[in-house]
């Protein structure tokens, strides 16, 4: 067992230590705090190894946590994380999946691919790290990054997560219990393989939107025509995701803009990059970017170009 109590460090060191803790306890991750002006960052992680599974209880503050391409490249091993939300909410994004997970619900992510967690309030989570070979990846893949509720087969998984937390790491039944958990997750994935129509529509719309972020005419009306649905049906499909359709499009555009601005190989101007993701008005782009990322697009662009300049010392 290992325990890391971030609050025991001086306030000025706490967030940096939190970054170190989550990388040591889990896999390479990059946290971004929601409130940069806050004096400290109280958080705690407790891990308990079993046999192949590593269990963790996490309590922390509002933040975004990224496992991007660079972190994936530094990850030693291939794992799934089975995360049960205890308090607070977590927005989970992996691949095309985008879900909001609340208390009593869980999600599964794959460390061999990028993912992102966003927490908008203090939160607690129980997280189990399972090696790839323990789970049926073929059945699990369609459910990665999605919300699993605590009913039916999902309820069995939630109950097992809680029960396994109390099992001693020296228990001779540890390996059998791990396989029982893996079997429950696989069964739950099979039972939820047929997604409800609203979720299927949302996934299809997101796929369509990703390919058209640069189109200023991308709108509710345009998407409704493309999918032959009413605006009410479209809005209902996004109601469970935590964001409206319009807010989702804006977020995706700004995320793509941030990636392009941070790429020193992209020689376009800030205005051109804004236009490439659907912002025809530079002032509107700048305001929206600042609200989303806490800095101006020119700041990100300048940092990327500075990083590209070779050192002469």
From TrEMBL:
It comes from Pseudonocardia halophobica. SMART domains: HTH_ARAC. Keywords: DNA-binding, Transcription, Transcription regulation. Residues 203-303 form the HTH araC/xylS-type domain. This is Transcriptional regulator. GO terms for molecular function: DNA-binding transcription factor activity; sequence-specific DNA binding. InterPro entries: AraC-bd_2, AraC_XylS_family_regulators, Homeodomain-like_sf, HTH_AraC, HTH_AraC-typ_CS, Tscrpt_reg_AraC-type_HTH.
